[in-house]
Design goal:
Helices cover 29% and strands 28% of the residues. It starts with 5 loop residues before the first strand and ends with a helix. The chain has 4 helices and 9 strands, in the order βββαββββααββα. With 156 residues, the chain is of the alpha/beta class. A hairpin with a 2-residue loop joins β2 and β3. α1 crosses α2. It is elongated.
Length: 156
């Protein structure tokens, strides 16, 4: 399977200076264009998605989709899955910057809540099945497994 995305950047003045180099760009996938930039710390524009955020969203989304697939195969019904994912930007042993750790903190609402041990096994299976996590060179951990009562989250 081939995956495609179009990345576009343009500046009529070219790349004359690091300080004035525009960091704004866009990527287009499946007909949707996302305004992107470097992180503000690296002279990017606030309010645009930076590549590190996109990578974190990809890991979180891939893990979620894998988790839901495993839950379906186990005939468990998930009503809601929300994740507050974080990444740590640090230095690798060779001194280069990299995302050095990712933590996923999902909150789940189940139709019938399974045990913590079952949920942990589903997360482990999801991690093994996640294409994006399998590509990374940093640890991805899942913490918390916050569980909410499905009846409390329903709106009548």
């Amino acid at each position: 399977m081939e995956i495609n995305v179009q990345v576009n950047w343009e500046n009529p003045d070219g790349t004359a200076s690091y300080e004035t180099l525009p960091r704004d760009f866009s990527w287009t996938a499946s007909g949707i264009t996302v305004p992107a930039s470097a992180a503000p710390k690296y002279f990017g524009t606030a309010g645009r998605v930076d590549p590190e955020q996109a990578l974190l969203a990809a890991v979180s989304g891939c893990h979620m989709l894998s988790f839901l697939a495993v839950a379906v195969r186990k005939r468990l019904v998930v009503r809601r899955y929300a994740d507050r994912a974080t990444a740590l930007l640090g230095l690798r042993p060779d001194g280069r910057q990299a995302i050095t750790a990712i933590t996923l903190a999902p909150e789940l609402v189940w139709e019938a809540q399974p045990s913590h041990a079952v949920i942990e096994k589903i997360h482990q299976s999801a991690h093994r099945e996640c294409f994006v996590a399998n590509t990374l060179n940093c640890p991805v951990s899942v913490v918390g497994f916050a569980i909410k009562d499905a009846s409390a989250s329903r709106q009548d």
